[in-house]
Amino acid sequence: MTNKTVPALNRKAALIDLTIIIGTLIILKFLLLNVESFWSFAGPLSLLAALGVATWPLKNRRITWRSLGLACPTNIWQTLLWTVIALVVTMAVGAIAQSISVQLLGGPNEALLAIAAKYQGRFDDVPGNLPVFIFWLAVAWIIGGFAEEMLFRAALLTRFENLFAGLPFPATLAVCSQAIIFGQQHYYYQGLSGTIATGVIGLASGLLYLSFKRNLWTLVLSHGLSNTIGLTLIFSQPQL
């Protein structure tokens, strides 16, 4: 059964955790982006490092990933239904937010297009190549499905809730805070419009996390399925 309440943590401990986790996420990514051989994996590596930093103090805080939403669901059918809802909502919200942000802010400039092409170049060998497709599929599930949801929706959101405890609408402030960081982490290759769209997806995901009684499996599965759809489309492209 998933925990319906945020695990207790005092403000000082929450602030220390947030500073270390977010600092690791941002600083390590910045350093890796300046090393050409690590550029393509700056996001995944910094994310995994931040997740490790977030996991390390859990035992001392008497908090488990089960209490943050990874407990075995008691109702599988409900979890599957929530997964479908989360998949539809996040994909729709992302598409709408991307369209609106591009209309308001304009499309990416040439420099950003070059960076985006460099990022997408990681998948150049995916079309028609089953082993490469399976490799990136595994990465997509580990990084997108599990790591991102565990870090942003569970670890950061709950710590922000503890930090904002006593203020009006602490859960809302927590959802917005993790969404801002989630969007910012995609700025380096998506630009401002992409950052806003991704941030809106993070906002929707945070709200879904709370609405689904902190059942993190719904977001892990929906995020993984979304990535699977995208990679399958790339894999199905005609080979040049």
Layout of helices and strands:
Blueprint: H1 11-33, H2 42-55, H3 66-70, H4 76-105, H5 110-120, H6 130-163, H7 170-184, H8 187-211, H9 216-235
Oligomer: single chain
Largest sheet: none
From the helix content, strand content and strand pairing, which structural class follows?
A: mainly alpha
Radius of gyration, in Å, reads 18 Å
Strand segment tally: 0
What is the count of DSSP helices, taking H or I runs of 4+ residues?
A: 9
> How many domains would you count in the coordinates?
1
* Order of helical and strand elements: HHHHHHHHH
User: Which percent range fits the helix content?
Assistant: over 70%
Low-confidence sequence ranges: none
Report the sheet-strand fraction: under 5%
Keywords:
mainly alpha, 240 residues, 0% strand, globular
Question: Can you characterise this structure?
Answer:
With 240 residues, the protein is mainly alpha-helical. It has one domain. Helix content is 74%, strand content 0%. It contains nine helices and no strands. α5 (110-120) crosses α8 (187-211).
Summarize it.
The chain has nine helices and no strands. With 240 residues, the chain is mainly alpha-helical. The termini are far apart.
